[in-house]
Every structure is written in structure tokens, then in C-alpha cells.
Amino acid sequence: MFNNKEKYSQFIKSEAKRLGFLSCGISKAGFLEEEAPRLEHWLNNQMNGQMSYMENNFDKRLNPTLLVDDAKSVVSLLLNYYPSEFQNEDSYKISKYAYGQDYHFVIKEKLKELLFSIQSTIGEVSGRAFVDSAPVLDKAWAAKSGLGWIGKNSNLLTQKVGSFYFIAELIIDLELEYDHAVTDHCGSCTACIDSCPTQAIVAPHVVDGSKCISYFTIELKENIPPEMKGKFDDWAFGCDVCQDVCPWNRFSKAHNEPFFNPNPELLSMSKKDWKELTEETFKTVFKNSPLKRAKFDGLKRNVTFLK
After folding, report:
1. C-alpha–C-alpha distance, residues 8 and 10, integer Å
2. Whether 132 is catalytic
3. Quick one: 248 and 107 in the same domain?
4. Contact criterion met (CB below 8 Å) for 165 and 22
5. 14-63 pLDDT, tens per residue?
6. Does 3 score more than 90 pLDDT?
7. Are residues 208 and 160 part of one domain?
8. Interior angle at CA 81, CA 49 and CA 252, nearest 5
9. pLDDT over 70 (residue 1)
10. Are residues 144 and 278 in the same domain?
11. What is the DSSP string of 121-185?
């Protein structure tokens, strides 16, 4: 149907839009030279805490051609999750990305459909879909393909819609037309660094994962260190502070993905409800939710720690 890189690229971007993605950018698959020393420094300084999986597949993280044979292009995609409704003010807080159903499943389905569409229209194209659970440096690829710049809080930022979106990619063995990185628009702003409740942003663009509230409430499996008491600002699962204070998030718009709509019970829960949460209610309210990652016991531990 099509016969050149420009048309293939336009087709992929229009299909991404049809599937509900916020935006789509494409970059040439290859070794991430600038990221290699940064990742090495981050790991050597043990900023991954107990997330030992971050130490695995070091080479694959930096080179998509080791993940997909004969990879030529990385197609990066953004999917908005900014909600139209928020939690009750008298509540323990959870990250906005966890309001709805687990995004891994939602995005994987869209990516499968996108790959199928590429194969049906363009022909024999091989590739794999990735949604942050694989050794791919999502933000680096999204920035490389012009979807935004890496902010001082190490999140991908865009001028039009801020940062409340998921990043995913298709790595395929098809040559395409490649996009270019955009300029950084953080300027002299340090709102995210100044507002982090646990001072986890240790330098511009460097987050010490082992100090982040998201790490303590989701990744850490043992008891939360007592010296963190009183520093969590009522966050029971994840943390959005560095995004909430970012001036670019003034432009966030509500998503239109039904799977990300929150369970009304979650929005109305008070601190009292969180404290009295039973395993049965947890299973009902958070069915297919990202909160299952912390499990009922982990969530109870977090709420108890906040009391």
C-alpha cells in the first residue's frame, strides 16, 4: 500500500492517534551513548535501593538491537492518564496513574493492535511491544524521538500537556523517518527539587530512587525506615508531588480512556476508610488495579506508617 519511509511513519502516527495515544515519535534504534555513563553512575551509587532488577540486563537497557533482532526503529508512544476527578481531600493519597485499571494490560492491547495494523498494511514487520516492565529506557527514547524533554525531576515533560502520561514503545525491524529531540524548557525553575518531601531529587535530572516515596510505598518489601516518619505527606501508594508542582502540568487535560476511570469508592474513601480497609474490600475496590503491586499487606503497612 505504501512504499517509503515517510509514508510508513505517517501511517504509524495516524494509527497511534486512532488508538487513543496522545502522541507518537520515532527514533533510530541503536546504542544510547549518553545514557550509559548516567545509568552506571546511578547504579554505582545504589540509587536503585533494593530494586535489584535495575542492575540486570545493563547492555539491553542501552541497546534495543539486543532486544529485537535487526531492530531499526523505536516507536515511542504517550498515553494520557490525567484524571477528571480526584480523591476526597480527607484521604490517604495514591498516585493518579493508579486510579484506574493496571495500565500494563491496557497499553499492551493497544500496542498489539498497532503492530498488527503495521503488519497488515505495510507487510512483514517483526517487533516487540514494551510497557515499562522490560529493560528499556522509556524516557530516553521518548526524548530522543521528540516527544518531550527530561525535566529536573527526571520525568518526560511536554509544553502542551505536562507529564501525566505513560510511555511505551514498539521496537521494530522497519526503517522509518526519524524525529529529533526538542529543547529543554525547565529554565531556572526548581519547583520539583524544592517540593520533594524526602529530598529524593539529589541534583537536576537525578532522582535517588532509594529516597523516593514511590519506592518506599511500592517497591520496598520490608519495614519503612523510622526516620521517614512524618515525611510522606499522606502518600500511601506512589507520590505525585514533583509532577503536581511542575508549572507545565497546568496544561494537563483529562484523559478519555474508560479503563483509567477510577472506582467511585476509591475517590470517596476517607482516612478512616483506609485505616479500616479489609482484604475483601481491597480485592473489590482495587480489582485489576496497580495497587495490587503493593498487595493488601503492603498497603496496610503504608497506611499504618502514616497514622
Report:
1. 6
2. yes
3. no
4. yes
5. 999 999 999 999 999 999 999 999 999 999 999 999 999 999 999 999 99
6. no
7. no
8. 105
9. no
10. no
11. HH----EEEE-SSSS--HHHHHHHTTS-EE-TTSSEEBTTTBT-EEEEEEEES---PPP-PPPP-
- For residue 90, being part of any structural domain is answered with no
192 annotated ligand binder: yes
Which of 138, 172, 206 marks a domain boundary?
A: 172
The residue annotated as part of the active site, out of 59, 132, 173, 208, is: 132
- Read off the pLDDT of residues 178-192 as tens digits, 9 standing for 90 and up: 999 999 999 999 999
Q: Residue 177: inside a domain, yes or no?
A: no
- At 6, is the pLDDT very low, low, confident or very high (cuts 50, 70, 90)? very high
Annotated ligand binding at 214? The verdict is yes
Q: Averaged over 249-275, what is the pLDDT?
A: 96
Residue 24 labeled ligand binder: no
Domain extent, residue 13, equals 5-85+98-172
What the block records as the C-alpha cell of 220 is 520496598
Question: According to the model, what pLDDT value does residue 2 have?
Answer: 52
What's the structural domain count of the chain? 2
23: part of which helix (H) or strand (E)?
A: strand 23-28
Side chain identity, residue 7: K
pLDDT tens digits, one per residue of 204-256: 999 999 999 999 999 999 999 999 999 999 999 999 999 999 999 999 999 99
Q: Is residue 186 part of a domain?
A: no
Question: What does the block give as the cell for 100?
Answer: 484506574
Residue 184 domain-assigned? no
